[in-house]
């Protein structure tokens, strides 16, 4: 036979359930979860910033390459090559012969240097030095061909 359960006045083995280490484990778990979230979001944010910077540098490089080819062609009086680097809007307004005639009357470019492309209006600040020694600063307006994706020279603003 089993003994009957203890009656009134008997003290239970524990006054309250044991809590030893419970809060430490809870805070440790929250800390680890927070750290994991921070690492994931931080890595994602860093990757996003990296993509933006890389994209900006790529556009800057492509625009400077096209504008450089354009000014090199003008400097070497290769007007047909320069004409091929113009946007459709300008080529629709002027034939290659008209462009060559107009460019042959312009001061000859001796050298040029570029700043960073303005991504808002897609212009490239350019310092020009002419064969006469005169200097000028222009903003080369660029356009992107919708068919090929290539950048094209689309005019100047002083």
* Biggest beta sheet attributes: 4 strands, antiparallel
Summarize the amount of helix as a percent range. Answer: 40-55%
How many β-strand runs? 4
Order of helices and strands: HHHHEEEE
Name given to the CATH architecture: Roll
Question: Which residues form runs of ≥5 with pLDDT under 50?
Answer: none
The pLDDT mean sits at 84
What shape does the CA trace take? rod-shaped
Cα radius of gyration in angstroms: 35 Å
Total helical segments: 4
First and last CA, distance: 108 Å
Please, how many domains? 1
CATH class type: Alpha Beta
**What is the name of the CATH topology?**
Nuclear Transport Factor 2, Chain: A
Amount of beta strand:
15-25%
3D structure, described in words:
By secondary structure, this protein is of the alpha+beta class. The protein is 48% helix and 20% strand. It has helices spanning 22-75, 79-84, 88-93, 96-105, and strands spanning 109-114, 123-130, 135-144, 151-157. A four-stranded antiparallel beta sheet has the order 1-2-3-4. A hairpin with a 4-residue loop joins β2 (123-130) and β3 (135-144). The termini are far apart. The mean pLDDT is 84.
């Amino acid at each position: 036979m089993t003994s009957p359960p203890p009656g009134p006045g008997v003290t239970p083995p524990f006054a309250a359930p044991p809590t030893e280490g419970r809060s430490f484990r809870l805070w440790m778990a929250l800390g680890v979860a927070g750290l994991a979230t921070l690492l994931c979001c931080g890595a994602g944010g860093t990757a996003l910033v990296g993509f933006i910077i890389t994209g900006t540098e790529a556009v800057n490089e492509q625009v400077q390459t096209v504008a450089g080819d354009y000014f090199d062609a003008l400097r070497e009086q290769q007007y047909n090559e320069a004409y091929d680097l113009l946007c459709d809007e300008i080529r629709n307004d002027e034939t290659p012969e008209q462009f060559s005639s107009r460019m042959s009357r312009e001061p000859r470019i001796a050298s040029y240097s570029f700043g960073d492309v303005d991504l808002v209006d897609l212009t490239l600040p350019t310092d020009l030095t002419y064969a006469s020694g005169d200097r000028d600063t222009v903003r080369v307006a660029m356009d992107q061909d919708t068919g090929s994706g290539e950048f094209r020279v689309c005019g100047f603003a002083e």
